[in-house]
Design a protein that fits this description.
By secondary structure, this protein is of the alpha+beta class. Helices cover 25% and strands 33% of the residues. A 12-stranded mixed beta sheet has the order 1-2-3-4-5-14-6-13-12-9-8-7, sandwiched between helices. The longest helix is centred in the middle third of the chain and has 17 residues. The structure holds coenzyme A. The site of coenzyme A has 18 residues, from strand 4 and helix 3.
């Protein structure tokens, strides 16, 4: 029996949703409201399913996203999500068929890149995606941190203040704060109204949710400059010892002062002995906000946001470069979407990029270009690993100086 891969209709959406849950090993059936919420969020024209005998056995969805790149420009991205193939139908090429169709349409539409959060490392490199932004999670042992247990919040130090607010307030002030945050954070992606609704429990996306606390930081001038969202597990040890772990779901700060105040605040809450930070940039300032940075122990360090370049010229012209330099890049791309030889003339004032017939300085797969693009990966490292080939002596050093950024990109969101 042949398997048909195509976009899904609204009537098929509940079956498609069941297949998503099956692939993600969640209970197969959701409440009607959850299915309706997901259907309303999905662009059905970009929602694919594989059907056998009328039953959905594989799923794939993409949506329009904005990705901030080094320098602050925003690119149109084809964000890929809900990728599953039921265990009865795995390893027969269904993912390959759905990915091929989606990327071809993204290219036609004019998206500059495609993005995704990879569940497992080996899945997406073959489709031209490279790991472009990593995350680190720390567990802070509050007792070891050296913070003063008498600290009563910001104020005396920087004139700022912290207030607890509720979800409705966050829906009002969160979007603007986040817009300002993402404009300066390479790797960050946009959040729409639905995102804020689900994040604050106004609407259910079907995933388990309990109401968290929301702490807002205002600077001395009264500007909202940071938000921390956290929940505690309420754990106690024997002999009446509070042993609460506070898990941070989101913490965005526009300034180091806001970050310092919010992290110290979460670490100062009575009964909280451990703070789990959630996914942070690997070079987050956090450990150094603590008098003893070793109190923050790394519990997760992993690749997170994967990027697939679709339009080399537009992508390379959109980001900024700290130093001047010229490179001719030979890009290999098995899917043919971004293959070619391109000359990049970069400088701190701007960059231009165009196809060229000049000899190549550097040869690499589009996957490696994706890994280098946001500034996280090192061209020297990739050359040492043999995945970037130096065709002209010194070209790898030029690529290192051009692509690498002093601060690392970070995508705080799962999508
Ligand atoms: C990951 C998943 C979508 C792959 O689907 P699939 O239809 O089996 O993939 P394909 O048959 O198109 O695989 C294409 C190639 O990728 C390889 N591949 C796919 N998934 C892989 C994995 N998890 N690890 C290693 N290799 C993998 C296949 O072996 C195949 O290699 P080949 O061309 O050399 O034979 C499917 O296994 C799945 O749903 N897993 C659980 C949910 C999940 O992790 N989804 C991804 C969320 S980001």
């Amino acid at each position: 029996m042949s398997i048909e891969v195509r976009t899904v209709t609204e009537a098929e959406f509940p079956d498609w949703n069941r297949a998503v849950n099956t692939g993600f090993l969640r209970a197969p059936t959701d409440a009607d409201e959850t299915v309706e919420w997901r259907c309303a969020r999905a662009d059905l024209d970009r929602t694919q399913g594989a059907f056998e005998n009328g039953r959905c056995v594989a799923t794939f969805r993409s949506f329009a996203q904005e990705l901030t790149v080094p320098g602050g420009a925003v690119l149109s991205a084809d964000a890929v999500s809900n990728v599953t193939v039921s265990p009865t139908h795995r390893r027969r090429g269904l993912l390959g068929r759905m990915m091929g169709a989606d990327l071809a349409r993204a290219k036609e539409r004019g998206d500059t890149v495609a993005t995704l959060i990879a569940a497992e490392y080996p899945i997406y490199g073959r489709y031209g995606f490279g790991p472009a932004a990593w995350i680190t999670e720390w567990a802070i042992d509050v007792a070891r941190s050296g913070l003063d247990p008498r600290w009563s919040g910001p104020g005396a130090e920087d004139g700022g203040r912290i207030d607890l607010v509720d979800g409705a307030d966050v829906r009002k002030l969160g979007p603007e704060l986040h817009e300002r945050f993402r404009a300066r954070q390479p790797g960050a992606v946009d959040r729409d109204e639905r995102w804020w609704g689900a994040f604050t429990g106004q609407t259910s996306n079907g995933l388990p949710w309990t109401e968290p606390y929301h702490a807002v930081y205002r600077s001395a001038s009264g500007e909202v400059e940071g938000l921390a969202v956290y929940a505690s597990d309420g754990a106690w040890g024997d002999s009446k010892q509070p042993l609460n772990t506070a898990s941070v779901r989101d913490l965005i700060a526009l300034t180091p002062a806001a970050g310092r105040a919010l992290w110290r605040f979460v670490c100062s809450i009575d009964w909280v002995t451990t703070v789990r930070t959630g996914h942070r940039a690997p070079d987050d300032l956090l450990p150094h906000f603590l008098p003893d940075p070793r109190a923050a122990r790394i519990v997760t360090h992993s690749d997170f946001l994967w990027v697939r370049i679709l339009d080399v010229v537009r992508a390379l012209e959109a980001r900024t470069y700290a130093v001047p330099g010229t490179l001719v890049l030979e890009i290999h791309d098995a899917a043919g979407l971004a293959a070619g030889r391109f000359r990049l003339d970069a400088s701190p004032e701007g960059a231009s990029c165009a196809p060229t017939a000049e000899p190549a300085d550097l040869a690499l797969d589009v996957r490696e270009l994706g890994a280098l693009y946001l500034g996280d990966e090192s061209a020297l490292r990739l050359a040492a690993l043999g995945t970037v080939t130096e065709e002209r002596p010194g070209a790898v050093a030029v690529a290192e100086a051009l692509f690498r950024t002093p601060r690392r990109p970070w995508c705080p969101d799962v999508f």
